[in-house]
Model the fold of this input.
Amino acid sequence: MRRFIFFWFVAGVTTSTDLDQWAQFKSKHGRVYTITQEDRKRFSIFKDNLQKIEYHNAKYEKGEVSYALKITKFADMTWDEFKDFLRNSFGDLLEDNSEKSYESRLEERDEETIVDLPTAVDWNQKGAVTKVKDQGTCGSCWAFSAVGALEAQHLQTNGSLLDLSAQELVDCADATYGNMGCAGGLMDNAFNFVKVKGILTEKEYPYKGISDYCRQKQEGFKIQSYVDVANQDEKVLAKAVAQVGPVSCAMDASYIQLYSHGIIDRSCGCDNARYSLNHGVLVVGYGEENGVQFWLVKNSWGTGWGEDGYFKLRKDDKNTCGIATLSSYPVA
Done:
């Protein structure tokens, strides 16, 4: 036992606070490492991330960066491991789906309708957004993104806000529709499935967080079509968010592993090219904070991440993290 304790304190500079935070992290997130070597490895990574958080937040306090970091459930992952977790390569999926022809339409810029948009929108305040979910270790971000947009359309069409089934999309909107379950998918492909087959509620088809066989025994809520927002045009995206509802978007989420609060901007290191898109999210509004325009975005990593499961992304600044590169919404 003495030799074990001695290891912790000689393998780099370790404090009792580090150990306390590590114990709290493992307890909170259910981390159990039965092999001592793996625990040591994860603790070392955790300490590196603690140092990163401390360094970054010191800059945040000085006003040198626009967002803060914190310990999240990904704090025992390296950056490469976090990118592997994201898993969803929208660029590859788009290439694989290039020969598919679905009945979507493209919403392009109309200067007359763009100039009269409200200065701020939040569909949460309109009761059109369900609670934040947690996709777990399944790469089902695309399904949760699509479901969020579908839920708002269900409300507008049927007058009720229901939790719709992301699991049904994972299981049933499969390779036939160009998706790969927990290995990734496209929101447009999910919308096409719902147009043809419909979607059940979360209660009828609960989330399991794995790719399973399709258990759809009845049709649920259907949509008429879906619309692709003009590529990299944030003005058109704002119009869709303001006039239609929450919009499904892909983004480069490689640098938001430890996000806490504030407005993420391009200084984080993210890219806006299609090949860099690796995560599906839901834009539920936009606004301004301390003179800076932002998108309000719902994530699917649980309420412990970010601002109760949400984050803010710099708006109208060269398409931050590709938020307007691949965006679409359903039409009920």
